[in-house]
Amino acid sequence: MDFATADLIDDFGDELQSCETQFRQFGGRSAFSGPIATVRCLRDNGLVKRLLDTPGEGRVLVVDGGGSAASALLGDMLGGAAVLNGWAGVVINGVVRDVVALRGLDLGVKALGSNPRKSVKDGAGETGEPVHFGGVRFSPGDWLYSDEDGIVVSGRALR
Questions:
Q1: With contact defined as beta carbons under 8 Å apart, do 76 and 96 qualify?
Q2: Which among 74, 79, 82, 147 has the fewest CB atoms less than 10 Å away?
C-alpha cells in the first residue's frame, strides 16, 4: 500500500475521521483501503455472507456487530469468499473465528477479538446504511484506510 494512516492524518487533518476503537489485526494484509460497504447485524452473519459473495471491486466491508463477542461474524469460509470476490478488507465491530486461517488470507481483517462460536445465518440486519462506532460515521461510498496505526475515513479517495 502506498499510504500510512499517520501521514494521511498529518496531510489531511480534520478532513479525516479517526476510529478510536482499538481493533486487532487478523488478516494477511496489514494495510488496506477502499470504498466502504456496510452491514449492521447482531450475532447473525447472513448479510455478511450475502455481501462477501458479491464482487467486492476493492471495497472494504464495515460490519457493525454491536461490539458483541458472543459469536463470530467472519471465519475462514467467508474470508476466503471475500478474497475470491475481490474485497480489500473487512472491519468488524465484533469478533471473528478461524484466526490462523484468516492470517493466511490476502485480505485485511480487523475485529475486536475472536470466539469459536458460529453466528446464526438468518440474514437479520440491514445493509447500505451508515454505521457508527469508535467516534466515526462509516458511510457507504466513503473511503477507509487501515494499517497498523489504525483506521481513518475520508469522504473521498485520497491517494
A1: no
A2: 147
Q: Which three cell numbers stand for residue 102?
A: 484468516
Contacts of 95 (CB under 8 A, 6+ apart): 65, 68, 69, 71, 72, 73, 111, 112, 113, 114, 115
**Better-predicted residue by pLDDT, 159 or 5:** 5
The label of the residue with cell 477507509 reads 144
- Measured distance CA(127)–CA(140) in Å, rounded: 9
Q: Looking at residues 52-68, what average pLDDT do you find?
A: 98
How far apart are the C-alpha atoms of 29 and 14, rounded to whole Å? Answer: 27
Q: What's the 3-state SS for the chain? A: CCCCHHHHHHHHHHHCEECCCCCEECCCCCCEEEEEEEEECCCECHHHHHHHCCCCCCCEEEEECCCCCCCEEECHHHHHHHHHCCCCEEEEEEEECCHHHHHCCCCEEEEEEECCCECECCCCCEECCCEEECCEEECCCCEEEEECCEEEEECCCCC
pTM of the model as a whole: 0.97
**Above 80 in pLDDT, residue 90?**
yes
- From first CA to last CA, the distance across the chain in angstroms is 10
